Amino acid sequence: MTQKLEATAELKHASADKFYGFFKNNMNDLINVFPASFKIVQLLEGEEGSFGCVKLWNYVIEGIPMIVKAKVEAIDDDKRSLTFVAMDGDIMQMYKSFKAILNVNHGFAN
């Protein structure tokens, strides 16, 4: 069975390009923005912001420390879209596969 969750948020303090650029090139800074939730975001393979790069995430959900090893499966700069696929970690105990897609649209912020 395939499950899908979608969420939409309006950007009030950043342009769509800056928001997309943060998630493409500076996701390691999540540990500074959300220190209670993200402990480590470490580049393991490849180049930051490039197709095929692999990162290790140490994060906390409801007080429980977790890890995930994820790969950038697709990048579409024209559509401001990033696709991440979990390769290993705690999330793989709950799901056979896990994919996250970030789409940033100009509809909310310019």
Condensed summary:
This protein is mainly beta. Helices cover 13% and strands 39% of the residues.
How is this structure best described in words?
Belongs to the MLP family. It holds the Pfam family Bet_v_1. Residues 1-110 form the Bet v I/Major latex protein domain. This is MLP 34. InterPro entries: Bet_v_I/MLP, MLP-like, START-like_dom_sf. With 110 residues, the protein is mainly β. The protein has one domain (16-103): START domain (Alpha-D-Glucose-1,6-Bisphosphate, Chain A, domain 4), CATH 3.30.530.20. It has 2 helices and 5 strands. It has helices at residues 16-25, 30-33; strands at residues 38-45, 54-61, 64-76, 81-89, 99-103. A 5-stranded antiparallel sheet has the order 1-2-3-4-5.
